[in-house]
Structures are given as C-alpha cells and as structure tokens.
Fold:
Amino acid sequence: MSSISSASSPPAAPRQVFAALFLVAAGALIFEIALTRLFSLFFQYHFVFLAVSIAVFGLSIGAALARLIPPGPNGLLTADPSRRLVQVLFGISIAYPAAALLIALLPSTASIWPRAVLALIPFVGTGFFTATVFEYFSETSGSLYAADLIGSAAGLILVVVLLNSFSAFTIVYMIGVVLAGMALFLGLRLQAGSKWLQAPAAGITLLILGLNLMTGRLDYDPLRLDIDTAPRDKTMLFILNDPEQEAKIIRTALSPFARVDVVQSNDPSVMFVFTDGGAGSYMVRFDGRTPDLTLLFTIEALPFVVRPAESVLIVGAGGGKDILMALAGGAGSITAVEVNPAIVEITRELGEFNGDIYDRPEVLTIRGDGRNFAERSQDAYDLIYLNLVYSQAAEPASQALVENYIFTEEAFEAYYDRLAPGGHLAVVSHNALEGSRAAVTALKALQNLGIEPNRGLDHLALWMYPSEDPTLRTTVMLLGREALTQETLQTLTFGAQSFGMTTLFSPGEHELLFASLRRLSDVDDFIDPGASYDLSPTTDDSPFFFKLDFGAPQAIRQALTGAVIVAAMLFAAAALLFQKQPGNSPVRWLVMVVYAALIGAGYLLVEIPLIQRFQLLLGYPILTLSVTLGTMLFASGMGSLISQSWETGALIGRVALAAFLIAALGLAYRLFLPPLIEALLPAGMPVRVAAVVILSALIGLPMGIPFPSLIRVAGASHQQVALLWAVNGAFSALGSVSAVILSMAYGFSWAFVAGAVCYLGLSGLVWAMVPRRAAAA
Structure:
C-alpha cells in the first residue's frame, strides 16, 4: 500500500490506521488502570485518583502539541503524514516501557511528581497520535472515534484479565511490545519509516519484557525504596527494613483489586498479610483444632466477650485472625466476607499454617463486598463485626478520597436489619475521630429507622485505647439491636478496663461526648460546622467516611488548580488560533471551542458518579469498573459509528437532540438510580449485571455522537481539529476533578446534575446555531 498523501480535502483512513488507533486507545486505557495499581504501591491511597487526571492531561497536552509543533521536511516531525504517524507510534511504544522502568527504579517516594511526570509521557504521545489521525482523516471521524472508544473498552476488559496473572509493570512492558509491533507493521504497509531504526527499538521493548518475566528485577521491589521517604501507611516497608524482625516476603498474589504480600518475621506464631504494602492484617498459626484463647485478650476482641455469639458475620476477614477470635469466642457459624480475592487465595495456599481457616466447617467464605452481602442476605446474626475494614495509618487527612459504602447510614441500617434479637454490631476503628463518626452515623441510621437520638444513645457504647501515638488509639464501638442492658455494659466495661481502655461513651455513666444528643431530635443538629473535624454522618450519596477534615483535601485542591490553569490556557490558545483562521467569525470559533469544552467536562461528570453508584449494586469494584465503563465506551463507540452514516448537513440538529437526551437521562438517573439500585440488590448477579449494562449503554450511546460530529464538521471546513482534541481533553481533566469535589461536598447526585447541565448547555448552544446555518445556506 502506498503512503498516505496530503490532500486539500480529508482522505479516508486506511484499515491499518483504524487498527493502530484501536491498539493505541486500548494501550492508553490499560496503562491508566495499571497506573492506579502502580501508584497504590508507592503512595498513599488518596493519590491513586490522580491517574485519571494524568491520563486526560497527557492526552490534552499531546493533542495541543500535534497542532502547535509544526512539521518539518526531515527528522522526527516529518511533514509526510505516513512517516509522522509511524514515528509517533514508535515513540509511544518506547515511552511505555521507559516510563514504567524509571517508575520502578526511582528509590524515593517523598513526592508523587517525579513518577507522575514519567507517567504523563505515554499519554502525551497517545494524544499526539490520536489528534494527528483525526486531523488527517476528519471526514471519517465517526468511524475513527468508534475505533478509539471500542479499543478503550477492549483494553479495559483485557487489563482486568491480565491483572490476575501479571504485575502492573509487566503489563505496561507488554503494551510497549504490542505497539512496537504495530508500528513496524504500519510502516511496512504504508511504506513509511526506517525499519533499520525501528526494528532494534522493538527488540529493546521485547528484551525488557522478557527480563522482567524471567527475573522480576524490573518490577516493584519494596527493598529498593528509600525507607526515610516512605509513606507511614506502607507498614510492610518498615517491617521489611527492621533488622530485628528479619522479615521477608514469602508469598505474593495478584488481582485487579490489589497486590497481596505475605511477610514472615522471626515470630513463628504469626504472619503479616499486606495489601499494596499497607492495609495489613494478621495470619495466626493455628493447628486446626483448639483456638488460642489468648486471642480474646486483645483490644479488638472486646466484642466477643459480651456474650457467646453463635452466629457471626465478619466483614473484611483478611488473613483470618478475626475468624479465629470468633471461634475462640464460641461461635458455631461464621460468615467471612472478603472483597479481595487474592487474600482468600493466598490464605488458602498457606492453609497448613493457618489451619485452613477459610475452609473450616463452621466458616462460610464469601468473596465480595460486605455491604452488598448484608443488603442481600436474609440471615440474622448475633454479632456483625467490622475490624479496621480499611486498615491504613489513621491520620485524619490521609484517607480523604477513600469512598467506602461499608460505613454509611444506609449500611448501618442494613446491618441493624441483619441483627438477631439481642444481637450487636461491632466496629473497630483506628482512632477516636473515626470511632465517633461511626457512632454518629449509626445513630443517624437508627433515627432513619424511627429510633430518636435520645433512645438511640441507649443502644450505643464506645471505648478507646489511650496510646501516646494517635495512630494507635484504637476504638471499639458496640451498637445493640435493643438498648444495651446493665449486665452487658458491666461486662464490656470490665473487659475494656482490663485492656487499658477508657470509656468515651456509655449510656447513663459516661455521656459527655454525646450529651447534647439527649436534647436533640435530629443527629444532624449535633454537627458543628466550625469544629476542627467533620464527624457528620456519611451516606451512599457521599460515602467518604475517612474524610474527617472540612473542605477539599490538598491533593484535590492542587489537581483542581492545575486543571483550571491548563484548561484556561488551552481554551485561550484555541480561541486565538481559531480567530486567525481565514473566514472564521468570532461566533463560529467560540461555539466550536465551547462545544469541545462542554463535552469534555460533561462526559466525566456523568461517568464517574455512574461508576460509583453501580459499585454498590455489583459489590466488586473491578467488576463495576469493567461493566460500567466498558459498556459506556462500547456504546459510545456504536453511537459514533451511527453518526458517521449521517449527512454532514443533518449533524447539527441530531447532535442537539442527542445532547438533550443525555441531559434528560442524567437528571433521571440522579432521581431514580438510588431507589432502583435498592430494588435490584436482592436479585441475582446476572440480573444486576444486565441492569448495569442496559443503563450504561442507554446513556453511553448518545454520548458517543457529539464529539466526532464536531471533528467532522471542523475538518470539512479546515478548522483546528487537534486543538479541539486538546480543549476536550483539558476540560475532561477539569470534569474528573470537579466530579470528585462535587461528590465529596454535595454527593454523587449533584455531579450527575452538573454533567446534565453541561449537555443541556451543549444542546442549547447547537440549537442556537441552526438558524444561522439555514440563513447562510
């Protein structure tokens, strides 16, 4: 096939270009998901969300560079379209393994920015390639956009499969190999590029992948990291670097949820189970016969000494210590729920050490989300036990972005409904702040069920271990289905005091903490907006239980500032260049730039809350991401493909209708999704997955129409297509950060509203242009 020729009118894209775009889009989505896994290994959890912002920032910058860097007669930025595409594709194939390799080898974790900048580079290349393709072939933008979105959907499904068997670093090296092969193929088919330079580059990417698969030396190595700059919540690093413990990793299991490591020290009675280097739990040596009763002489075992609990539900069973405490406490039936399948797998592998704790006859093991299970279960339990379900270091701001449906009003209502007569709900938290918030949320749940705060306090007790280290001030909260009896309170007080704990709240005795609630009819009135910390009840609409500080966390504020600056700069640059375009009226260029901005922000403002809402319905975070985002991308690709068959003259009216439909669906989802999800929770998994697919596709299909239509119209009139991509990407980044801020401040429902407003504004903007187009015709 001959190389692509430059032409006055946009040519049709060759099949090889569609294939390349498909693979580039798939690679970018795979890298975005893999990046969340990489960042989770090196940094505190609340930095992981930056992966999305890095992706859209990089794509936006790359698209801008595709327009702003002029092509030259020779070199990397050749003016020949075929050579330019092949060379950029090769650059991307090298950028992926190079970025991953440097991310792995950097010793310091003091700042996220060095690794963030490295991660940005492949996305910049992807944005450059994608914008260049659409610039050359804008006439077929509908079909190209379909290839782009469907490629992203395929990448999402593939990365979920790969993460079960390979590390995130290995997967990124694989992307480099695949894209290098595609670049070689594209260069041969288009008769472009120099195979003498490209073939060795492809060989290098293959060598890096092979070395990592054989040796693992180019992967995450906790011993390579500088312990002085490590985050406090990466407990595994400190244990491995403690010479007195002589610790080493003996097992590693991988899953899309997280990497799990089992660490063995010189204490033969216990092992540590770490999720991404933090979130540790214990695996206790057990002979499978008689549980060690000394387990009951620990702070977190306090709920098991109240009275014998025949049936126990454990949410977040981890390495099995909580199950052993339940056995030691006399439980005859234990339901152990663990959301991370890798933890269950690795605990079963070490069954000889832990007495096959997950497979004992008394234990029913459930792989899934504890809240989802509680909503769907019809069983009653004497004790529901939540022991540090998210167990990271407990500095108030360190977990601000951790959305957790385990600790919401609706969750506590579900737990209360699952309690047998005389049953108790126990929550073990990191510190007094979390314990107090859990108590306030539980009281709000009782109020929702018709039990006023004055009476609800009689169901509640709260204790704390008074450590000098604030991160070790463990609290234990107990909530009874009925008011706690004096006998129960005396037993608990005696047990707590024997562990050295102090009473934070006990009905009729120590009531200072919640004394004002005795006089209030609504728990919300107890919250003081001028307090140092936010203890307000969390809900499913804004489930950020660990966000204890008022206002947006620093990480989000920084991301928002960066997003606003980049979006404003690109908007201004695009407006300036459009204005200089021959024959362009101010109204025309302004409409195009605003159009691209509204789509960019609107898509993310709808996508993010939709994924969060469906997480409660499906229970598994990675399943939710795969089904929701995969369906949306595929459906949007189909919408784009449909729009390609429309005549250019018909696009503007149909885009307006599509945008109005998206806005209407967004507002409808804001109102009706919560009750619909509640109604669907008891249904089987196939029914729930089918519902998510239908609802995601319903709104995803029209969402794929506006942007390729804009590119098609712009390309036909020789407008700045690459700059429209840049503006769209920049405002996508702004939309992603805004969705998080709105969700934390007002709830996911208002992020839906903001997305609907963007599409409503787009619909009005496009309709306003119809008379002008008709008059011009």
